[in-house]
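chain below, 423 aa
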Amino acid sequence: MIEEQENAIVISLYDDVTEIVQLADTLGYNSVKTFIQHRKNPDVNSYIGPGKVNEIKEFIDDFDEEISLVVVNGELKPSQWFVLEKKLKRDVFDRVRLILKIFEKRADRKEARLQVKLAQLQYERPFVRELIHRARAGEHPGFMAGGEYQVDDYYEMIKKQTKKIKEELDKIRDDRVLQRKHRHVSGFYLVSLAGYTNAGKSSLLNLLSGEQVKVEGKLFSTLSTTTRKIDNGQIPILLTDTVGFIQQLPALIIDAFHSTLEEIEVADVVLLVVDGSEDNQLAKKKLNVSLDELIELGVNSQIIIVLNKIDLLTEDEINKRIGFLQKEGKVKSKTIVPVSIKFKKNIPMLLDTIYDSLPHVETIKIRLSASKETQAFISWLYEKTNVSSINYNDQVTVTVECNALLKDKIVSTCNKLQGSIIS
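prediction:
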């Protein structure tokens, strides 16, 4: 069943409104009109100036259908928001509030819901302070601001709830750190998916892991981390999908989602997925935004650029797109792997690139006597390492590639079984 969309109008200081319209659509609003007010700096009182506010009010009053929301393609100061809501008598969402509402709608797990709520509370604090200031000055708190409720009490509630949520998230973060440590010690490498929202990260997770994580053609369809094992008969890898990036991702969202985004920071390898079907300038812009976010997060591990949707390009266009991004983007010497997730094209090449990029891969060759204990150990090696060769003669000779953290455990077990390390 298709949800009926409510109507919205968009206000912007510049012409490019594609992304803000997509965000409004993701939240369920149909943008019926865009008002562009070219200004170098926003008007200090109403963001767009009094003349434009009056023009928009007339449009809303005269429009045949109800307009439920006014979307501002930028970040409003509390005083500007107050003026716009009071004059237009409609809900006014700036870009940050719109993203937070999408996050609230998408959050389907406890951690994501807590992170979204924390970001919302941090966003609301200056706006509630503005309402307190206006109320004490004798002004009505605004058409959509809740009437005569006690904003002072609400402000205190925000502070208390913020503290409580931070404590809960700190505990979840500590648990996540222990979980990652256990995975590393168990021989798993950690690979994280990153990239602009709706670039195809969840689809790539499904393809590489054989799982069926929900995929939607909407912005921010993934908020919670999802981790799956890549079962390719080689070194065991855990692949984690994370929240997508977007231009000017608000700092309060990055702060609230710190424990989730940390999965990217601590990964052994990061797969940065890019929609290769978009034109050069848009692909470059989204790639650069994503790389800037990775730098901001402190990522120092190997980054592989995954250029997705090459099924929509000719071979010549693919080569030109890669050449352009290498020349004009911020990829420097990073490897770019062109793929089609939809048609599973170049996936073996991508897997080989991932394995070649893993840090501190150890190769160990051991010789063991044949026994039940040896067979159990070999089964364990198949689960935790990449068994590159095995020969059964008078003794069993096994060559494995593994996470460096497993080397001592393999050597110790081999010694217990009275085996020998050949190399």
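The chain has four domains: 6-106, 110-167, 188-357, 361-421. The domain at 6-106 is CATH 3.40.50.11060 (Rossmann fold).
thats it, cya
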